[in-house]
Amino acid sequence: MWNVRQCETHRMTDSAPTGFIGVYHADGGPIGELRYLVGHMLGTTRCGLCDVTHSWRRKPEWDAMVARLGIPFDLVHLNEMDAETAEAVRLSGSPVVFARTEAGLQPVLRADELDRLDGSVAAFERELCDKVPRIRSQSD
């Protein structure tokens, strides 16, 4: 694990995030989950955010990371988005992680960046903190 540190960047606006929303590149519900699972096993579907948050179930280290962030982190599927999130995904693609700020949803991690994390929650946490100002992540 890495040490407690202040996250700094100039890639976002000066408004501190009030939360995050991660959008999977998959539909939710039994049919959507099954479609993703089959596509993933056949190598025809990829979702780097899915790989970070889940193996066969949600990763306990994901829940611990979210608790360390200290601000809400919502996860939604493509068929579960509200209008604001759907518009942001239309512009950014999916999977994607957005920061919720006074200026609206701002993309923080896009598909190619999520893919490079190779499913690692620790790498996700480092990338998130490297890109977002004024959040703290505390290791136990």
Account of the 3D structure:
41% of the residues lie in helices and 18% in strands. By secondary structure, it is of the alpha+beta class. The strands form 2 sheets. A 4-stranded mixed β-sheet has the order 3-2-4-5, sandwiched between helices. Strands 1-6 form a two-stranded antiparallel sheet. Strand 4 and strand 5 form a beta hairpin. The longest helix is centred in the N-terminal third of the chain and has 14 residues. The radius of gyration is 15 Å and the shape is globular.
Keyphrases for this structure?
single chain; alpha+beta; Glutaredoxin; disordered C terminus
In short:
This protein has 140 residues and is α+β, with helices and mostly antiparallel strands.
